[in-house]
Amino acid sequence: MKKLSPSVIIICVSVRSRPSFQEIKRSWGPPSSTFKRFRRAWDKTPMILVGTDIESRADPEIVHGLFMNGNREGPVLHEEGERLAKEIGASKYLECSLGDRGQVKQVFEEAFRLISTKWSTCFLQ
To answer: In this predicted model, what pLDDT tens digit does every residue of 10-68 receive, in sequence order?
Structure first.
């Protein structure tokens, strides 16, 4: 039986949760075992990191609540997401509000673009 491999990997994480972003770094960034297994199995598979819940950055109550928790840290910034994407080897960092169909559509359009680029590269070789 042949193993199936993904055409693209989309990792979603809420910008409201710094611990989740840190877990992505621990799990998917080098030198973690997940990263090593992933790269060995799907070396050429494109990956997209998606920051969700971006609307929470504009909500003063949510931002205040994030600063008042034990860490005293606000939501994850766009620049931090881009940096994390580079660290884990993602092809792209995108952000969206899951309640905005247009933004969600952009994530999937980017995934399809990466897949078509991957396939066209395979056929040109």
So the answer is: 999 999 888 888 899 888 877 666 666 666 666 678 899 999 999 988 887 877 777 77
Does any domain span residue 91? yes
pTM of the model: 0.80
Structural domain containing residue 114: 9-124
User: In this structure, what token pair is assigned to residue 77?
Assistant: 């910034």
CATH number at residue 30: 3.40.50.300
CA distance 57 to 62: 7
Whether residue 106 is contained in a domain is answered as yes
Count the Cβ atoms, other than its own, within 10 Å of residue 87.
15
